[in-house]
Design goal:
This protein is 21% helix and 29% strand. By secondary structure, the chain is α+β, with helices and mostly antiparallel strands. The strands form two sheets. Strands 1, 2, 3, 4, 5, 6, 7, 8, 9, 10 and 11 form an eleven-stranded antiparallel sheet that branches. Helix 3 crosses helix 7 and helix 5 crosses helix 6.
């Protein structure tokens, strides 16, 4: 048997990932890797990061999936330092396409993928990049929060998160695009979700966006993902979808001053995204769960476009869920609502990316 490190030399890495001491660290929602395997035996091993493991909160353990030739071979929460899965054990040589995807979000745990174990003659090769690339920036909606739990009263649990059912993943799949997600549940632009109107400063996307992702867990016992700068040249999207403002609304509701502050900060954040991706179409979207700040998002987008003569800035209003398609945990979108939102976004992207 031999061991093969899953890094950019052997696999196509998806999303904001890190490699430390030969271990692939999957940070953000739907991050992962894809490769083609030719051989007789393949064993994959995954583990929960030591910080989350030591904390011991079952609701925070990372959830993952392994797809073989497009079908689920593994789909589970990883609650051990290391678990191994026999993906292939054949007497004759076989060829397989393998994808590893982190279904849960970054904040609460990092998924560790150990070197693949194969027979001595096996080969693992990366797959080609797709011509279309999309980045999604968002909150719990983008993470696929609670989508696998139909009980609206359920508390947060990574076991109920499934980024593969989010509108973002479904959009990328429909357009045959490579993707990257930067999202965290409860996060906003000037304030994270707040139940009482008190500003929630820690839970904001902009302070962490230039990093490899926010997480309470470390990637090597010392550094958190947000301590490590992200190389924006590693993924250059044709389009960026920003779906933020849902959580800010809990802070801004009923206050013209706070809403104006949000609008100004949103303008600045989109400007920063534009500085990283000068040629990308940027779609400023809102509306699946909350509509309060739609006027501010629209104005900020239109003002920046006018101020900079930028014809690749766009505003998109999603259809707001009304219960017809049900609700998931904590009133979040169901799989059907995500699919409906993805269809809207797919149609819009097809139009502007002509």
């Amino acid at each position: 048997m031999k061991k093969i490190i899953l890094d950019k030399a052997s696999a196509k890495l998806t999303g904001r990932t890190l490699v430390r001491d030969g271990i692939l660290k999957l940070v953000m929602s739907a991050s992962g890797c894809e490769f083609n395997f030719t051989g007789k035996k393949l064993i994959l091993s995954a583990g929960c990061d030591s910080d989350c493991l030591n904390d011991g909160k079952e609701c925070n353990f990372p959830r993952m999936a392994v797809l073989v030739n497009g079908k689920f071979a593994v789909k589970k929460v990883i609650c051990k330092e290391r678990e191994s899965f026999v993906i292939c054990d054949s007497e004759s040589t076989v060829s397989l396409n393998v994808r590893i995807i982190k279904l849960s979000e970054a904040a609460f745990s990092v998924l560790e993928i150990h070197p693949a174990e194969t027979d001595d003659c096996a080969v693992i090769e990366t797959v080609p990049e797709k011509s279309l690339k999309i980045e999604f920036i968002g909150d719990s909606i983008t993470c696929g929060y609670g989508v696998d739990d139909a009980n609206i009263e359920s508390e947060f649990a990574t076991a109920a998160e499934n980024a593969m059912k989010s509108y973002a993943y479904l959009t990328a799949k429909a357009l045959d695009a490579d993707y990257s997600m930067f999202s965290a549940s409860g996060y906003g632009i000037i304030s994270g979700y707040t139940p009482d109107g008190t500003r929630n400063l820690p839970e904001r996307i902009p302070p962490f966006y230039d990093s490899s992702g926010f997480s309470y867990s470390t990637v090597d016992g010392t550094l958190h993902p947000h301590d490590i700068a992200w190389d924006f040249k590693s993924f250059t999207p044709n389009a960026v979808v920003i779906n933020l403002g849902t959580n800010d609304s809990s802070f801004c509701k009923g206050s013209d001053e706070r809403s104006a502050e949000f609008e100004a900060a949103y303008y600045e954040f989109v400007s920063r995204v534009r500085s990283h991706y000068p040629d990308a179409h940027i779609i400023c979207a809102l509306g699946i769960m909350e509509t309060v700040l739609i006027p501010q998002v629209r104005r900020a987008c239109e003002k920046l476009a006018a101020d900079t003569a930028d014809d690749k800035l766009h505003f998109l209003e999603f259809k707001t869920q009304d219960g017809t398609l049900g609700y998931a945990s904590k009133w979040h979108p169901t799989e059907d609502t995500h699919a409906e939102s993805a269809q809207r976004l797919v149609e819009y992207l097809k139009e502007i990316l002509k």
